[in-house]
Design goal:
CATH architecture of the largest domain: Alpha-Beta Barrel
Strand content: 25-35%
Number of helices: 7
Number of domains: 2
Helix content: 25-40%
């Protein structure tokens, strides 16, 4: 499948029905378009099985609650919708995007309690999120925008509005020839990339920022568990910017990113070392098991 995302063949699950891809539309006064009342999940299906599927469905419901709406679907119904979208498009290896949002209704202002909540699921073939960076290491810019305080925004919701500064940061990075950008949090601590969590290696130990101001990714949690099962010490902690110079290896994790090595962040360089290669290979085996 190729071309613009609004002009493709296939089916999208939308509100309980499979509709033609090009007909999957919403009204211009949809609340989510004006006030970002939308949450979503990004998932990958490998050989017919969505990795950590139920955890993603549970998080979609949780994210909705965190931005003050209830999805009109249960976890089992979301699971069935995802499978229906895969079956309708004949895909067994695919990216899966489930999204829920406040639609058009009686309210057209900041408040939207009377507007209905909708859900859709689209699936498509998608390769490596960072292209050949999976092999040689991605190049990251350092973003000027910071992840907000949990007192400012619900950082554990996978909510559309939280990605505005990520989009701007990634656009700025791409203009400099980078694949992505690393972001600090509101305190100036190392946080994450624009859509992926970050890990570092020093002296055989792994260090990753404590997920107290950004999304604690499902892939992040999976990789931490894998590392600890291998007997590798993982330190979830505050990481200061001046520590970047001392780290030897770095990688990103996320459903789209999977495990992607990082070769450079700003002026700091990293090797694609043994721990990075090993955890990347182990993750590939796990998701296809």
């Amino acid at each position: 499948m190729a071309g613009a995302y609004d002009d493709r063949d296939g089916k999208i699950w939308m509100g309980g029905q499979l509709v033609d891809w090009r007909d999957a539309k919403v009204h211009i006064l949809t609340h989510a378009m004006h006030y970002a009342s939308s949450v979503f999940e990004g998932e990958r299906c490998y050989a017919g099985k969505i990795f950590k599927s139920r955890e993603h469905s549970e998080r979609l419901i949780k994210s909705g609650k965190l931005i003050d709406f209830d999805l009109p679907y249960t976890v089992d119904e979301i699971e069935a919708a995802k499978q229906a979208a895969l079956d309708a498009n004949g895909l067994t290896d695919a990216y899966v995007r489930a999204v829920a949002w406040r639609g058009a209704g009686e309210d057209m202002g900041v408040a939207s309690a009377r507007n209905p909540v909708h859900m859709a699921v689209a699936v498509w073939e998608w390769g490596n999120y960072y292209g050949d960076a999976k092999m040689k290491g991605a190049k990251l810019d350092i973003a000027k925008w910071k992840r907000p305080s949990p007192e400012t925004a619900p950082s554990q919701a996978k909510a559309a509005g939280l990605y505005m500064i990520a989009t701007m940061s990634k656009h700025a990075a791409e203009a400099k020839g980078c694949s992505d950008a690393m972001m600090f949090d509101y305190r100036g601590y190392v946080a994450e990339a624009t859509g992926a969590n970050i890990f570092f290696v020093k002296d055989g130990e792994v260090h990753t920022p404590a997920a107290d101001a950004f999304l604690n990714g499902i892939t992040r949690q999976t990789v931490i568990g894998m590392l600890r099962d291998k007997g590798i010490r993982v330190n979830e902690r505050v990481i200061m910017p001046d520590e970047l110079e001392g780290f030897e290896q770095c990688w990103l994790t996320g459903t789209a990113a999977e495990v992607t090595p990082v070769g450079q962040i700003g002026d700091y360089n990293f090797e694609v070392g043994a721990i990075t290669r090993e955890i990347s290979a182990d993750y590939e085996k796990l998701v296809r098991a």
